[in-house]
Amino acid sequence: MLDAFLNSAIAMATPILLAALGELLVEETGVINIGIEGAMLCGAFFAMVAAYFTGSTLAGVAAGIAAGVAINAMLAFLVVNLSVSQVVAGTALDILAVGITGVFYRKFFGITGMAFMVKPMARLEFGPLTRIPILGAAIFHHNPFVYLAFAVVPLIGYSLWRTRYGLILRAAGERPEAADALGLGVYRLRWHALLASGVLTGLAGAYLTLAYANTFVENISGGRGYVALAVVILGRWNPWGIAAASLLFGAAMALQFGLQALGTAVPYQLFLALPYALTLVVLAGFGGQAASPSALGEPYRRA
Amino acid sequence: MLRARDISKRFGRTLALDRVDFDAAPGEIHALVGENGAGKTTLMNIIAGRLRPDSGEVSLDGAALRSGSAAGALGAGIAAVNQSPMLFERFTWEENLALGGFGTAAFDLPAVAVQSRALADKLGFTLPPAGSTIERRSVAERVRLEVLRALSFNPRVLILDEPTGVLAPAELAPFLGLLSGLRAEGRIIVLITHKLGEALAVADRITVLRQGRVVARTTPAQTSEAALARLMIGEIAPEPTAPAPPMGIGETALSIENLSLDRDGHRALDGVSLVLRHGEIAGVAGVDGNGQTELVELLAGARSAQSGRVIVADASAASPLGAIAVIPENRDLDGLVLDMTIWENLLLAGAIRDRLAPRGWLRRGGAIEYCRVLLERFHIRAPGPDALASALSGGNRQRLEVARAVASAPRVIVAHNICRGLDLAGTADVHRVLAEFAAAGGAVLLVSSDLDELLELSARLFVMSRGRMRETGQGDRDPSRLGMLMAGNWE
Amino acid sequence: MLSSVGKSIAALILACAIIAAVVLALGASPVGVFAALYEGAFGSWYAAADTLVKATPLVFTGLAVSIAFSGALWNIGADGQLIAGAIAAGAIGPYLGGWPRPVALGLMLAAGAAGGAMWGGICGWLRARRDTNEVISTIMMNFVAAQVLSWVVHGPLIEASGAYPQSMPIAPSARMYMPIEPTRLNPAIVLAIVLAIGCYLLLFHTSYGFELRAMGRNRRAAAFFGIPIARLTIGILALSGALAGIGGAVQVCAITHRLYEKFSPGWGFEAIAVALVARLNPLGIIASAIFFGALDNGSQAMQRAQGVSPVLVQVIQGLVIMILLAFDTSAWTRIRAELFARGADSAARGDTGARAGA
Lengths: 303, 491, 358
What we know:
- The complex is a heterotrimer.
- Chain A is mostly helical.
- Chain A is built from 12 helices and no strands.
- Chain A is 72% helix and 0% strand.
- Chain B is an alpha/beta fold.
- Chain B has 3 domains: 2-233, P-loop containing nucleotide triphosphate hydrolases (Rossmann fold), CATH 3.40.50; 240-323 and 410-491, P-loop containing nucleotide triphosphate hydrolases (Rossmann fold), CATH 3.40.50; 338-407, no CATH class.
- Chain B has helices spanning 40-47, 70-76, 93-98, 109-123, 139-152, 169-184, 196-202, 225-233, 292-300, 331-335, 342-346, 350-356, 364-377, 394-407, 424-439, 451-457, 479-486; strands at 2-11, 14-24, 28-33, 55-60, 63-64, 78-81, 157-161, 188-193, 205-210, 213-218, 252-263, 266-277, 281-285, 307-312, 324-327, 412-416, 443-448, 460-465, 468-471.
- The longest helix of chain B has 16 residues, at 169-184.
- Chains in contact: A-B, A-C, B-C.
- At the A-C interface, helix 3, helix 4, helix 10 and helix 12 of A face helix 6, helix 11, helix 13 and helix 14 of C.
């Protein structure tokens, strides 16, 4: 029981973690990407389409990444080159994503009520490790996405705080005018971050359709992109904090199914609402913006 | 040889630079002087590649620099130090320096620290404690760090924009000595300043800018402070306003008692007390960053104190600070809403808003007319009350703020660095308005880092240092004595 | 360059051009799509009336968004606030049987306003006192509201037979007249217009509105001059929520007469497009809402005629917002200068070679 719950928690944390790590990169350069939900949704949809029509999971992953990158590129052009309002541009992309995925779903699959399934991604085998009581089944029984996501955590941490490139990325978010005065190239850095984040968010979306649900349904992202935004704040803009916060939400989501299975008298909607309400409560307690990059969210135009 | 040829730059409707030619040779300190707003900073930004000129080009030793590329300029060996330091607040000083010339592709902060210390020792600078961030550092420390960072690039050309503005008078001579040392190394030093005494003391050549044009190229031997001043403003300097005779010093207008304020974990204001009476202008001298900003924000109502009291004459429970009008230092950030119309900006002052919108209902026609009258009365050049505040020039924005302060019929006006960025004519205007206000019975608290302004206008003088305030005595109005007080030497 | 209205119209035209391309990519006919949209929206008296009906909730949520955005408070939660208002109205509606109609309607609208105000006010409080980003909090409240709605229609408010997930019908006295049978046109649109005028007056003719707009354009200066930022934040988000909540109550009173899941097809997000096209001006919201209501109305006809999913209108919404943002930015002058200067640079370089040699 417990191991199934933990396994589920880790699995559900994965897309949030991937998206949040991407968002961390972006926010460290001073941009807030509200469109992350739309990028995830498009990543999910196009991953499914590619996997369904080619039969190849790898093609699906590639398509998912491409979709995530495309959405983020649109945002990059708007908020970096044109310095428009980051919140409004991001929201526009969320709306656009719902429209694009809906329209193309109809185009490819018609209006039947049938769910179009893709082959589920195989979980990795770890032999004897899986037989460790509780933790074995919890940790050593996942598809590759999960391990990739957690492997990226130290990678991002190292890149941001232990490399020169990380320093100049963070400089762009700390004080863009000063960074440009030193010739670091704020626009270029923000583009890099948004494209890299597009890869991670696209992967998060691909995970949803290729490994989690094995099909695409309307609004499959279900607010996970927005939760990722909250996770960055809760994690204090630190990869390990983000990993912990993602697990917290993963657990909240896993709880839904666990408690439903228990068949308590509490209405199931409470559990569905739990992750979102939890986000609010935790943000209320710990959600100050004091630890954020100084120039976060401010439109910047070089002279 | 640094050469800037035919440089022009326009901002909106303002022509900031008009076909400027400028050059500087190795082993020379070349002073670029001019009033605030003459275009000196713009020229510096263009040479340093931070700004793209509309026309013209910059070249170093015959090789043209790519316009608008800061990386290109740094690569060619041009480093610049800004008027207000552009450091990364939350980064440590080592990280800031790592973004300078000591940083390499391999990320090695200890190595950067070692190199920085070596250079700092050579220059006679002290560095902050290892691993500390910039946030708590004083303004003077920041200037030094930025100079250090610029020098870490081992630049052929070093441009400094008003570097002495934030230094206490005692630190001036060592700094100028430093520049001479750098000159001896064969570098090209461009010193941008509006302080003629300094320029004459240390420069080899002087170029005078006025309203975006070069009006003179000369050397200290061939000119004088008076001549330079005349070139800078193009006419005889207007008579400095004589300090308004303290006529009818009346009742207490403002009383500050033992005010203390903490900010970001340090004590920004420490037991500040003063009494200001109707009809007088009192000055608060001090190097920027010693608590003046917090004091002004507190008097504006934007910040609250941990302890102490502020009592304003005839304040009410509804508006305990009601009768104070504050003119903030950061005019574009704190004083105006540039995206709103001029008449709407007047409404920012609560007293004016109450008058033009009694019981909450705003009569637009009346407000616009009121604005029109005010613009005329204070000689503010504007397209009309309906124009956006961003259409006003810097000087006119300042006049607008002063006008708004006076029009809100306050008992006390608090003005913070009110003439920064203004030319001499604008400065004279503002000073005159304040003097008239005091003569009519108002009280003025003039907070400024400009000693000339303070000595000219204020009957009484206070000095702030590290959050503490002290009134100066009769014999303390000597600039060098004041300098000591400002640096914190209060015996 | 273009005037405010001109920009909005140009943005819509550009969006249509892009949509035409998308439609071609889908293998349908752009002309056909636009014709079907028009036909569905204005092709008959019934259709035109229904366009107004579909526009009504957009006026309320559009006003909610404009008011908040004018204060630089990013209220993405108009959906949740509308639902909260609908729930409040739907909860008391069945019990208003004995009351005279004006009173019953008044109570319904008041309930809607209260529900929405609470929903928005919570996020306002979180922003003011806890520094919580209101974009995230309002979005989270959307999801919570959807679940609360789901719960009440399956549970406490479920209709008598218990067979369908919908609430009990509201009393006849709490319903709005539909004077022009068989259309669904009702007085709610009048209420919407009245509120729009009210919001306009509030925004541009009162001190409160001035403080709101000053805070939106320069928060620092507003704080410096003693404008009560915290109080305004809570007040504006509550007001914004109340407007959306009234919209929800109106839907219950006039159209649905009960609650069910998926009450809002995304009016809260669509409202952002509505508000931007109207340049955040409450008077412009009316026309803007009618335009987007027409799109919503026509989308069903478009689906039937051309086989294109109705969510194409969301592609239009997203595009319109992005195009307006692009039109409004002042970055173009700089981009033009840069492109122009780059050309001048290379020309000058040819020059410099000669001079350097000299």
